[in-house]
Structure formats: C-alpha cells, structure tokens
Amino acid sequence: MNGFEFVLLAIRGRLAEADLPADERARLELFLQDYSRIAQAYRQRRAARETGLVLHGPVRADAAMVATN
Questions:
Q1: Structurally, how many domains does the chain consist of?
Q2: pTM flag (> 0.70)
Q3: Is the terminal CB of the chain with fewer CB neighbours within 10 Å at N or C?
Q4: Which pLDDT band, with edges at 50, 70 and 90, does 56 fall under?
Q5: Which pLDDT score is estimated for 66?
Q6: Gap between the Cα atoms of 45 and 67, Å rounded
Q7: How far apart are CA 24 and CA 18, in angstroms?
C-alpha cells in the first residue's frame, strides 16, 4: 500500500463513521473520486517503472580514481 492508498483508506474510514450532511458527504465523495484517480495514475506509473529497462548487452561505467580522505 502506498501513501496515496493509505490516505484514501483513512478518509473513507472517517466518512463511514462521521455523521455528515448529505451535501457535505457528496462534496467529499467527489474529492475522493479525484484523489482515487491520482492514486491510480501513480500506481500505473510505478508499475511501468518497475518493469525496468531492457538492456541489450553489457553495461560499462567509467569512473575516475579519486583520493578518499
């Protein structure tokens, strides 16, 4: 569970136990729908990044020798 999903879960839990007027609850539900789309986009972006790069051949890194201390 990432941070976005945790926040969604916490807010939904509070809405379930809160005694809110119907118009306020509807306004908050619209906010949660928008926030859910943000969380979904993050999840999809993260899944795409986790597939990583496909490298075709060896990778070589050149580094200059430097003194330490």
A1: 1
A2: no
A3: C
A4: low
A5: 72
A6: 40
A7: 11
Quote the CA–CA distance of 8 and 3 in Å, as a whole number.
9
Asked if the structure places residue 68 within a domain, the reply is no
Tokens of 17: 């136990």
Integer Rg of the chain from CA = 22
Here the tokens at position 68 are: 């330490």
Mean pLDDT value of segment 19-43: 86
10 occurs within a structural domain: yes
Domain assignment present for residue 57? The answer is no
Distance, CA of 56 to CA of 64 (rounded, Å)? 25
Beta-strand ranges (E) seen in 1-69 are: none
3/10 Cα distance (integer angstroms): 11
